[in-house]
Every structure is written in C-alpha cells, then in structure tokens.
Design a protein that fits this description.
322 residues; alpha+beta; OB fold (Dihydrolipoamide Acetyltransferase, E2P); 27% helix
Length: 322
C-alpha cells in the first residue's frame, strides 16, 4: 500500500500532466485560428541538456525559464527569434541589407521596421518524455572571483545546483507570417540554429542542442507477429499505421487522429510522415461527442496550400468502420 506521501506525489503528477495537456490544447487552438497566416509547426527533441534563463532572477538560487503559473519549462519566443537571427547573421552572412532577413527579423533605427514573422514560445510536446535534470557548477576560487584573495588550492569549492531540461525531452515550436515564404524561411533558420548552434546558456560546453525526434519503430519480426495475431483473431490493430507518404490520388482516404473536438471544424493530425505534428481542421463532423481526442478516423484532402501542403481535410468515416 503506498504511503501518504506517495499518494500525494501521484496526485501531483496527474495534476501537472493535466495542466500541460490543457495548455498544449490552448496553444494548438491559438495557432489554428490565425486566419490569413501561414503557420509552420515542428517538433524537436533535446540532444543535450538545455538551460534557458540561467542568469535571470528566480525563487531558486539559479534560474531556469518556467511557466509562471504551471511551472513546466518553456523557451520564450524572443529567445528563439534571437538565436535564429544569430544563425542567419553569423553562419549564412545575412544582415539587414538582405530583404528577406529584414522582413523576417525587422530593422534597427534609424530605419526601424518590425519583422513580419511571429516566433511563438516553445512548449513541451507531452508529459511522457519531459524530464528535468539537476546539474551543478562548482567554482573553486570564490574569494579570488570576489577580489579578496589570490587563487589557491586551499579555497573551498562552492557547488551551485541548477535545473536543466533533460536530453530527449520533446518540444513544440511554431512560427507564423502572413507571407508563406517568410514563415518557411524563418522555420529553416530556426531549425538550423537549434540543431547546429544551440540555445541558452553553456552552449560552448555542448548544452542547448536539439535534434529530430526519433520515432519508435518495430522490428520486422514484431510487425509480422502483430499482423499474424490480428489475422488469427480477426481483430484490427489498435491504431492505423503511420503512412510514409501521402496517397497520390486526391480522393484516397488518409488515417487521422482527433486532437480537439470542442468546436467545428474539429482538429486532427494526419498519420502521415511530415504531418504528425501539425494540427489541421477537419470538416464534416456533426456530433462532436462522437469525435473525442484520440479517436481515429478516415479523411480526404479538401484544401491545399500553394506549395501543395494540406490545409484542410474532410471526414470520410470512422477508422473501425472502414
């Protein structure tokens, strides 16, 4: 039987998970109602420990940027815009004389100009793989740094502990602009900045780097065993398989998962490589209660952007009733 403290810990974890999922739903909703904007969203996982906001004031002795109400880690949009700008300037040699650079990030005085791209705060993609890890700085010569004594080996080390985002933690990123080409370019610069330069403190020591998230894959033997079991029992698998690419024909059905059914059109994510982290409106759902988050459905493409990417789909049927 778990202790009282154990029960409290489980309750706290459940509350934290619910708060994060609710905040993520609101984050998705904000992006979905940006009429007239091209929204680019993507997911990256921390390749090393990440610490943003280390020098800021905090109730902790050292700081990490946490959501002011819910307490989970976030990466401010201003920091993301800054690192993307730094990459474009330092690595690709762009500056305010470049028209695209100026339109994405804006210009400084005397020819001040606002940028045309919105960089949203990055938030945890889910609570399953979000981790906070304790790290330490250990200054050995505190009196020397304070200017009261020369450096010497007899000084006592003073360990300073601080929190970091643990490797493998997945975060959602988003940029938006009324001009699709600017949103796409901002996304490219931001991804390259995060994967090649890193963000936050201690990047010279290897902190702050990101990578593409690795999807769980099954071996061929596991897949064959699952298919064999399904054929023997006459049951369908628990969920549709992720498609490697979109069907070639416009009218072909695509598997999708409902993520938001609070209003019409409902929001879904397509189970297709490259679309799993995008939220797309789906028309045709009448009884919203029948399309709760996590429900698998079939959809067809009803609207595409100029570059061919899917902007809207239509309900074709429930997955189990194929």
């Amino acid at each position: 039987m778990p202790s009282v403290n154990g029960r409290r810990q489980l309750a706290f974890e459940a509350e934290a998970k619910a708060a994060l999922e609710a905040y993520k739903a609101r984050w998705d909703s904000v992006l979905s109602v940006l009429q007239g904007y091209s929204v680019q969203t993507f997911t990256l996982c921390a390749a090393s420990r990440v610490i943003v906001g280390l020098g800021a004031e905090s109730v902790l002795e050292t700081s990490i940027r946490l959501h002011r109400i819910y307490g989970f880690p976030v990466i401010p949009g201003s920091a993301l815009k800054g690192v993307a700008r730094a990459y474009a300037k330092l690595i690709e040699g762009k500056d305010e004389n470049d028209p695209t650079f100026a339109e994405v990030f804006g210009k400084s005085p005397p020819k001040a100009q606002a940028g045309k791209v919105i960089f949203f705060d990055a938030i945890p993609a889910n609570s399953a793989n979000l981790t906070l890890e304790l790290d330490v700085m250990n200054p050995h010569y505190a009196p020397y740094y304070q200017g009261t004594a020369p450096p010497a080996d007899y000084h006592n080390p003073v360990p300073v502990f601080f929190l970091t985002i643990g490797p493998g933690s997945a975060f959602l990123f988003a940029v938006a602009s009324r001009e699709e080409k600017l949103a796409a370019q901002a996304q490219k610069w931001l991804i390259r900045a995060l994967t090649k330069m890193g963000i936050g403190a201690k990047t010279v020591a290897g902190y702050g780097l990101w990578r593409e998230c690795q999807r769980e894959t099954r071996s061929s033997s596991d897949k064959e065993a699952t298919e064999s079991a399904s054929s023997n029992t006459g049951l369908e698998p628990d969920r549709p398989e992720m498609l490697k690419e979109l069907p070639r024909k416009q009218e072909e059905r695509i598997p999708a998962e409902v993520v938001d059914n609070r209003q019409r059109p409902i929001k879904v994510r397509l189970l297709v490589a490259g679309y799993a982290d995008r939220v797309i409106p789906c028309t045709g759902a009448r009884n919203l209660e029948s399309f709760r988050p996590g429900t698998f459905i079939w959809v067809t493409v009803s609207q595409r952007a100029k570059d061919g990417t899917i902007r809207q789909v239509s309900l074709s049927g429930l997955w189990k009733s194929r």
